[in-house]
Amino acid sequence: MKFLKLIALLFIVQQASAQTTIIKKDMIIKNMIDEVSEKNIEASVRKLVSFGTRHTLSDTLSKTSGIGAARNWLKSEFEKYSKESGGRLKVEFDTFVQPADGRRVTKDATLKNVIAILPGTDPTDNRVFIVSGHYDSRASGANDATSAAPGAVDDASGTAVSLELARVMSKQKYNATIIFVAVVGEEQGLYGAAHLAKRAKAEGWNVVAMITNDIVGNTYGGETNLKDNRSVRVFSEGVPVVETKEQGALRISIGAENDGPAREFARYVKEVAERYVDQLDVKMIYRRDRYLRGGDHTAFSQEGFAAVRFTEMNENFDRQHQDVRVEKGREYGDLPDFADYTYIQKVGRMNLAVLANIAKAPAEPLNVGIVTSDLTNNTTLKWEAPKSTKPAGYYILMRETVSPYWEKKIFVTETQVTLPYSKDNYFFGLQSVDAEGHESAIIFPKPMR
Asked: Residue limits of the Peptidase M28 domain (predicted)?
């Protein structure tokens, strides 16, 4: 009885204007969020800029300049955090040979992602969550491997987020595994991310979600003169790029074009990040990436993983892929003095809230379906408990078909529930939840007999 009262207390929900919010916060997560340091993030960005250029094909032998010096420094930083975590953080180079492509890779090159793996503590839970930024940079010329390419915002900002998350999060324990990555070769064609995604697929990693932080340090919109230090865009695909013909036919028949795994994860990001981070407005963008553009999450999408991109609200193109110069009194170049480090800190805190909450949560429910054996205005949902740690219960999520966000969360403990709402008029989702309120990824149900 005492346990049921505790559950009832923890699972109080309130209806906001556009988003459901949990009243009770996990104080361990809140304390970790507070620990994310603007000073550390700025120091990491300026250190990466100090290597002159981090072009993928730049010098690999120098200890002070080029891509080689940058990756060695990143590895040493992750290793420092590993020592602070008692050795639980496993650091390695993810090394591969990228053949010349006749376009942006002019010769065969040995490339290295830098990864730090924080294994989950539940041996029955094989979930993996990946967070990345790309540490390579470029100047105006895509193949210019020698000119200064500071890359402060694109993408030392995202790389600094990965570093700071590893520093803070590796001190705590999670059910699932979290992998912090500094990716190479993004500017040459997403090569580092593509290699890691293929490795994850080949080795059978259960990657539930992947986040790339790419261009998350600018708050001034250049030619638009807009200033926005509270909004962060989350790009996600609605229809998985790997969808089969049969899956497409099912999607059309149930109207699920806006409910692919990446889009559900974007909804999760908005709810949890805004729960924990003040003065944050998560903008869900219904595209895989910006107009005609791509990022490292794309490589994971192409391998069938749910992947999203975090990006500042207004990009400043005077700072992006530009030779450092002054023309007619206008300064160009991705220099560190133009980055907003308080904003990058906020993005880091947003990442941490989402990753900590989902990695502490039980695994998602299995075989989730809507029973269609009878025509009825009720909706019956049926599912199975995850095979790892048993949840305290489940949230049934509901929204009207025109709503971008889940509007209702109904806590239940059984694995089959009939609701007095029509599946014709509402969308439904399901997630596992533990006694502390940590929710799993959201599963969109399939029809079942």
From this structure: 113-319
Alpha-carbon Rg for the chain in angstroms? 22
Average of per-residue pLDDT values in the chain: 93
Parallel/antiparallel/unpaired status of strands 127-134 and 177-183: parallel
**The predicted structure's pLDDT at residue 13:** 46
Mean pLDDT value of segment 383-401: 95
pLDDT classification of 24: cutoffs 50, 70, 90: confident
pLDDT of residue 198 exceeding 60, the answer is: yes
Band of residue 389 on the pLDDT scale cut at 50, 70, 90: confident
Mean predicted confidence (pLDDT) in 116-125: 97
pLDDT value of position 224? 87
* Distance between CA atoms of residues 135 and 185, nearest Å: 8
Residues 6+ apart with CB under 8 A from 138: 55, 144, 149, 151, 187, 321
Cα–Cα distance, 203 to 57 (Å, whole number): 28
Amino acid 317 reads F
Helix or strand (DSSP H, E) at 431: strand 426-433
Q: Which residues touch 243 (CB under 8 Å, ≥6 apart)?
A: 251
Taking phi over 0 as left and psi of -120 to 50 as alpha, with beta for the rest, 175 belongs to alpha
- 95's CB contacts (< 8 A; 6+ apart) are 110, 111, 112
341 alpha carbon, distance to own chain's centre: 19
- The C-alpha atoms of residue 361 and residue 373 are separated, in whole angstroms, by 32
* Residue 277, pLDDT above cutoff 50: yes
What tokens does 402 get? Answer: 């025109």
Q: What is the dihedral of CA 173, 170, 283, 344, to 10 degrees?
A: 160
Q: Which domains does the chain show, CATH number per domain?
A: 2-25+362-448 (2.60.40.10), 36-360 (3.40.630.10)
**Distance in angstroms (rounded) separating the CA atoms of residues 111 and 185:** 8
pLDDT single digits (tens) 90-100: 999 999 999 99
Alpha-carbon distance 131 to 161, whole Å?
9
Query: Among all chains, which residue has been given the structure tokens 């209806």?
Result: 15
**Tokens of residue 187, six digits:** 């500017």
CA 126 to centroid of chain Cα atoms = 18
